[in-house]
Structures are given as structure tokens and as C-alpha cells.
Design brief:
The structure is a homodimer of 570-residue chains. Chain A has helices at residues 18-34, 59-78, 127-130, 161-168, 186-200, 291-309, 323-336, 353-366, 376-386, 390-412, 422-427, 448-464, 473-477, 497-509, 514-519, 524-536, 538-543, and strands at residues 3-10, 39-41, 85-93, 98-106, 109-115, 136-142, 145-149, 172-177, 204-208, 210-213, 216-219, 223-225, 231-234, 241-248, 258-260, 263-269, 315-318, 341-345, 369-372, 415-416. Chain A is an alpha/beta fold. Helices cover 37% and strands 19% of the residues of chain A. In chain A, helix 1 (18-34) packs parallel to helix 2 (59-78) and helix 7 crosses helix 12. Chain A has an 8-stranded mixed β-sheet with strand order 13-12-9-8-7-6-16-15. The interface between A and B is large, with 81 and 82 residues.
Amino acid sequence: MPQLRIALAQVNATVGDLSGNASLVVDWTRKAREGGAHLVVFPEMVLTGYPVEDLAIRTSFARASAEALESLARTLEEAGLGDIATFVGYLEHDSVGPRNAAAVLHGGRVVARQCKHHLPNYGVFDERRYFKPGSSLDIVRINGVEVGMAICEDLWQDHGPTSALGDAGVDLVVSPNASPYERNKDDQRLPLVIRRAAEAGAPLAYCNLVGGQDELVFDGDSLVVSPDGHLIGRAPQFVEHLMLVDFDLPGGREYEQGQIGDFYVRRVFISDAIPAYEPLPAPRVFEPLSDEAEVWHALVTGLRDYVHKNGFRSVVFGLSGGIDSAVVAALAVDALGADSVHGISMPSSYSSDHSKSDAYDLAQRTGLHFTTEPIGDMVSVYVDQLKLTGLAEENIQARCRGMLLMGLSNQHGHLVLATGNKSELAVGYSTIYGDAVGGYAPIKDVFKTLVFSLARWRNTEAEKRGEVPPIPENSITKPPSAELRPGQVDTDSLPDYDLLDSLLTLYVDGDRGHDDLIAAGFDPALVDRVLRMVDKAEYKRRQYPPGTKISIKAFGRDRRLPITNGWREG
Amino acid sequence: MPQLRIALAQVNATVGDLSGNASLVVDWTRKAREGGAHLVVFPEMVLTGYPVEDLAIRTSFARASAEALESLARTLEEAGLGDIATFVGYLEHDSVGPRNAAAVLHGGRVVARQCKHHLPNYGVFDERRYFKPGSSLDIVRINGVEVGMAICEDLWQDHGPTSALGDAGVDLVVSPNASPYERNKDDQRLPLVIRRAAEAGAPLAYCNLVGGQDELVFDGDSLVVSPDGHLIGRAPQFVEHLMLVDFDLPGGREYEQGQIGDFYVRRVFISDAIPAYEPLPAPRVFEPLSDEAEVWHALVTGLRDYVHKNGFRSVVFGLSGGIDSAVVAALAVDALGADSVHGISMPSSYSSDHSKSDAYDLAQRTGLHFTTEPIGDMVSVYVDQLKLTGLAEENIQARCRGMLLMGLSNQHGHLVLATGNKSELAVGYSTIYGDAVGGYAPIKDVFKTLVFSLARWRNTEAEKRGEVPPIPENSITKPPSAELRPGQVDTDSLPDYDLLDSLLTLYVDGDRGHDDLIAAGFDPALVDRVLRMVDKAEYKRRQYPPGTKISIKAFGRDRRLPITNGWREG
């Protein structure tokens, strides 16, 4: 029976960086060769990165992508890697329009190519806006094994390309993916891949992207399953990884080409069966991370890649002594190392002693750079000159802090992090140009109650490893306060966070309406009050910096309400 | 031959305001009745406003829309308007999903309904994300006249619904639209409507929305054409308007129902022919506005509706004495009246005497409220405490001004306007949290050279009317400067605006690539420099407030590049 060793290269590409991504493909193809692989699969659109957004419709970029693909084929050949069949996703632009495509490179040439058929157009995806669908399938024979391909969403459809590949007869399906992380999504991927392997009647090798790209973070979690639903191998989450898998495939199926259902099937010959060799042991099956660990790694990865891919080396933010900035500090230290993290305590006359001491305590625990810059002098110029009172006086404090951080950013080159959480953002409990200042907002999609859970989880992890827990216990236990007037606490303006978050989870993440929420047992006055706050805060949310998305309904690119909006629930 | 008097109600709806929009329909149906109309057509999705964005997928909103439609039918009947066939666009949500729909209300009931077939998914449109397409056409017989309907984009397709209506046999096509303003777009609408009227073999009545909705502004420009391409009537741009048109139609065509091509055609009876009556004279054919006048009205309408629909009564912004803030001031005075406009001169030690005197001159000319608030004390606290130099010192001046305006906004309830233009935004010549502060940016989509043209045009208009030209001549003629360091002028950092704008027009609006631009004769070093500036500035542009869109490639909702972006042209 024909043997084939494949490699799944779960790598971290950067959108737009064609030459960097091409180098990544060469480097990992070399690793695949060192592992003895005959075929290597890279993630969806690895050559351009994903998602390219409006770069998809810039013809100079599409031309550069196609040229980079041809050039990559030659580079692989010149590097002595031309005999490995290399599956590389890229942006094609043909007479029909832009395409989300993948090619097979071999012997210095592009020997096969295929365009994605099912174009997702929901959630974070706008592919029907950007791409035209494909309707052909190129099946390549490698080592006498017939290998078909299904690009990402093409897997998620019943009676789609995998079904046609099954009808055409394939021995193996490889699937390049760029499937962003969402909490609990790994629970969906494995059953899906199992279903499609059964449909194709062949093993399925699912290779996913890893790393952060603006608001998205890709978790990897690449998989290989047998046609009878056995999990052969699983890659770890949030790290680059090469998975090697040996197949010994039955062959001898009926092979067809030409029009099969909605698809035109072409056969491409690369190589016949090779002499028998000693297979590798089965690859590891890495366990998915626990819920908190998974979220923590998603946030760390999203933050690190945003900072580094945008050319920054260090970050700065306000350290208030509260839980949000403490968690952001711990994330930043995990992502970048303590020496790249600058926490600024910016006390006002309303700041409590514990604000300053808890911030100092956190700095000692984590080793980050700590500075104190009082804001009293800035605030008093504004308050006195403009005669500000009430909310205007509260806001100017937050804004003086924002401007102070931007001044330090401009002077020293740090990226400013905004430390707000999803609960605040939902109800608009945030000052535009104040605490909303920054280039990135690491916990933008994390509800306050989850911020607390993550803090406890991270401290426990540290204890398990015999390290100092990064987050001061007092930041976890004291009542949250914005400290913009004397004795202020969050519960002056907001319901208790347990109650608020359970309501927001249903209204924001669950898209449930006013009447549903009352039927679910929430106090009608509370529902009215919270829904009005959420609906009013759209402008503030739009002005908030991007942040790592961990849920379907993050406030960001895939969620857009009108600003001018006369609709009120209830 | 059967007679029919129709009314096109070119009205200004507000997204989400179901009860306000329903009242609008009742009020304008009453006007139509007063004009003796038998049928009245409202714009696309008039009941919900357009575009509803993510409200489309909120089931509570879709339910409320459907209920509001039924309730509107009853209200019309109760108001004695039930005998007018009223064509009303709304959001439907049936077993297939959300729909962009329009219904015919008559006798207190919904007698016909139809869902948009062609869902645009480019530019400002995301309809394939939000709606499911329809495949049926309801043709209603009113006064013995067969009236078919084509919703907006359904007109823009060859061999689409209008062709099917022609095959089915109709005497008249009505078309509800929500077609946003774009410079020179009225040049496209009339030939299109003429082509479709010929395809349907019937007159076509095109009713468009008017007014501002966030970044979009709808210009009206409703049209009626005969099947032989004669322009029967044309409504004015940027104002609400009722157009009454009498038809005396041949009838006697072959009428079909059932499946016709891709559409299922239903026939609905409302009324037979009525006794002959004296027709009205033909409606007026309003001339389209000149280019500058059209842009000026678009900007005034967009600004006024954004301010009022969001519940503000007044605006505040920095008056620097320069051309941008002068044009914003003149727009704001035209949109809101001088008493609602607050201009603040915020001099620093680098401000020239002419900055202060030109700002004062503008205030005198327009009658807006004028205040001077020096920023020296705020700036020196930051510069001294944080030891800011160079760019950090320049930026803190712009930011102190932004915070000052926000303080006044919070204290007095004015909406802050950002005064930046498209050329600055394109190349990132703007300070985030500085001059970018605000809730709305009226000239965000206006290149600097067009800002100058508009200023001259507005002054000339004033002279024609015997009024004081609003914009000081010196603001038009002096060299532009940010005045953030001694003797600074824009040309220190940027090419001459004539050259810059011609390059940006090709690169931004025209999506032309690096090599194309050099082939077009631009200096390669200049192309490199400008393209790098544009590509780098995406984050700044995203943080800029919304502003009235006047071009296809405005920086806003329909244009989205990655922030983390390794692609560089050239």
C-alpha cells in the first residue's frame, strides 16, 4: 500500500508581509524535509496573511501575491526543497476577480491550484465582499496517493467540496485554515473534521494558522483524523508547531475527473508510490487547554503579536491599583517580558492610599518599570480656567491621564495600552480620550467577572510553579472604583458585576431582546437601565482601541450598530 | 385609458426610530391625499431607516418592524387614508431570515409585499451579510393600472426584476430607494432609470431617501421617466419633497402570473379604473446642483442631521484662523444657525497674530459665539513635568486643545467637531486625541484643494445674495500651518497640496498602485514618500470621528485596511 509522510506547518504569518511569509514557508518546508515529509500543508492564505481586508481589492497587491507565489516555488527548488509538495494559500486575481486560493508547489513550479468555494460572510468574515467563489478541485497524486484539498469554510458545508472529493475518490484530504480563536470553539472543530473525513471516506489533515492579527487571534489546534473518526494527532494551541504524520493508504479506489456535481475535478500527477520505509510513531495528541488557560494564552498571544508586528518594543499604561490594570500588567509581562513594560501610577487628590500601594505592590511582584506621575497640576489648570464641575471635572482627570500616557509614548516610543474591560465598554462606563486612550486594549473582550477569574487563575498557576503570584490579593478583593470623586465606587453607577455580566452575556453575546430578559427573571427596571446604557454607548465603543477578540460578539470589527439610532429596546 | 395619480414622498427617516418614521409616513400620505394621489411611494426601508446595520439581525427589532408595519396600516385607515395604496419599505424576518422588504398598505391591511432580490455587498453596502434575497414579485392593480415594484439595487441589474416585470406585463414600475450621495452620482441615476423603464416597457417612478445617517447622506433626486426615456419629473436634492405625477396609461397588455424566469409573480387586486378626471400639469424638473453646491449641501445636510438626530443642539470646535476650521464654521452656521455654533480660539506661544485676528474676523462675519482660551498653562505643566521635546511637545499642544474642547462639551453640552480634511487624514498629518477629537468631522472626506474651492464658492454665493462672505480672504490666501512650532508651515512636512491631492486622488480614490503612479509621471521619491505615509496612517484614520461621505473611497465604514500590515507599495 502506498506510503506518504505529511507535515502540517502551523505557523504565524503577518498580513501583507509577502517576503516575510515566503521566508516562513521556506523555513518550515525545510523543517518538514528534515522530518522526512513528502508533502507539507500551510494555513489558508499563508503567503498574504489573513484577513487581508481591503488589500484583497488592490490589484497591485494581488499581482504581488501571485508573483510571490511563483517566486516561492523557484526559491524552494533552489533550496533543494522542490521535491516536497508544498500547499500554500495565497491571493489570486483572475479574470473573474479576487480569489482566496491555494496552490501546490513542486519542482520549482505551481502544479495545481484551487479557489475557495464557500465564502463566509458573517461574524468576523466578509469573504463574499472580497472574493469570488471557485468551482474546481485539483487532486494531486503524490507517492501514488490521491490528495484533495478543502479550504477552511469549504469544510463547514454539507454536500460541499469534501463530498465531491469523496465522489471523485481521494485517499487523503488536506485542509488549509485560518480559523480564529473563540472561547470553546475547539469543541466544534473536532466533530466537524470527523464528519468531513467520513464524508470524503479518507483521512483529513486540518492545518490552522496561529498568532495575532489586529483583533483576531488564531489558536492553531491543527488536527488529523482517520475516516472512521479516530483522532490521529492534535497540535498544541497558540504556538507554532510542525506535526508529522505517516500514512499507509489503501489506494485502489475508483478515480474520476471532469464535472462531478458542482465541481470540475482535475487530476495532477506528481509522483508514483515509493519503496516501503519505516513509518514514524503516531504524532502526539495535545490536550486542549482549560478555559482560563486558553483565554489567557489568547490574550497574551494577541497582545504580543500586535505589539511586535506593529514595530513596537515596549508598552506603557496607567497602573491604578485596580484589577483591570493589574491583569493587563500581568498579561503584558507574560507577553513581552517585564523589561518591556512600563506602569505609571497617576494619582489625583481622590486617589486612595491603597491605589498607590497596590500599584507599587504589583510592580514589585512582576518586576515591571514603575513610575509615579501625579496629575494634580494638569487637572487644576483645566478645572480653574474652564470652571469645570461634575461630570466635566471627573472626565478631565481621566483625560489628563490619557494625555500623560500619550506624552510618554511619544517621548519614549512605548505603545499605550488601554485597560478597560468588556463590561465597562458595554455600558459606556469609560471616558473617551481618557481611560480609552491607547493603541491596543488587551482585555476589551473580557467581562469584569472573567477578569477576576483570570487574575485568580494566573496567581494559582504561579503558586503551582513556585513563583510569586503577579496580582496583589488586595486588587482582587477590594471594591472596584474609578476614583474620580471622593468615596466613589463602581456600584454607585452600575449594578453588581455578577448581575451585570449575566445580563450583558444574554443581551450582547446572546442577542436576546428586552422582553426575553424580563422573562428570564431579571428586574424590569434593571433591564431598562442597562439596555439604555448599552444602546447609548456605541460611539464610545467605536472609538475604543482594538483588542483581542475571544467571543463571537466582541465589540469590534464584526459588530456594528448605527450611531444615529432611534431604536430603544422595551 | 385608466388614470392614476401617484406621489413620490422623498422623506428623511431616522434609523431605528420606528414610531417617528411611521408618523412621517402618515404625515406625508396625508399630503399625498391633499394632492389627490391614489398611490404614494416611500423610500427603501423608510419604516426602519437605512442602513440598519446589526439591527437587521436583532430579532426583537425585526419583530418590532413587522408589528409597526401592521400598526401603520391600521393608523392610516383610522386617519382616513386607507384608500391610498401606500408603498412602505421595512425590515421583515421570516422563516428564511431577515429581508429588505417593501409592502403595499391599503384598507387598513398589508395587501402585498416583496423582498429585495439583488443584495449589494460592496462599497457602503453589506446587504448579503444582513439579508436573504427574495424571489417573488407582487403586482398590484390600482385604478385598473398594474403596478410593479423594484427595490433599489434590483434596478441596477440587467435581466433582473424589472425585466421580469416587463415580461409579466405592468403599466408602471415604482422603485423605493436608499441610494447614498456620491459626487457626480446623479450623472449615473438618470440613464439607469431610463434603461430600466425601457426594459419594463412602462414608466418608472424612482423615489429616494433624503437626509444624513452617520457617515452617509442621501440626496433625494427622485425621478420619473417614461418608457421612451423622457424625463417627466425630477425632485430637488437634499430636501424633503412630494412629487405628484398623473398617468394616463394604455393598459390592455397581456398579463401573466406564476413563475416567470427567476421570479414568482403574484397579482393583487386593489381597485378598478375610476371615472376620468382632470390631470395635474406635469411636475417640475429640478436641475441638479452644480458640483460645489452639491458638495456643500451634502456636507450641511450630513452635519445637521448628525447633530440633531443624536440629540445635540449646538457644536463647539477650535477656530485656528486657518481654512479648515473656517469652512467647518461656515458649514455649521449654514446647518444649525450661528447661535448654535461656538468657535474657540486656543492660542499658544507659537500662534501667529493672524491666527487670532482671522478667527475673530470669521466670528464677526458669521455671528457665531467666539471665545478665547489660551493653552499655555496646560501645555507647560505637561512639558515641564514629563520633560517633553520634539514631536511629543508638538502633540501635547494639539491634545491640550482637544481636552479643552471636550471639557467645554461636557460642561455645556455641545458636540465637538473635528476640523481635519481628507488630505491630512490620508497622510496622517493629524494628532490622535488632538485635532482628531470630536463627535463628527464635517470635512473628513474633502481634499484640501476642494476645501479651498468650497470656501471660494461659498463666499461668491454670499456676494451674489448681497450677504457678507463668511470666510476671511486671509484664511484662503495664507499658507496653511499647524503652528505647533515656530514658523512651521504644512509644506515643511507635506508636498504642495495641488500635487499631493492629485496623487492621493489616484492612490486612495482610484486604487492605483505604486508603479502606475510613477508611470503617470509622478516623481518616484514623492510616490514612495506619500504612499508610505498613507499606508502607515490607518490606525489614526480609524480613530477619527465619522464624517459626511462624498466619495466612493471615503475613509470610513466601507474602507478597511489591516492595522497590522506588512505590505508596502513599491
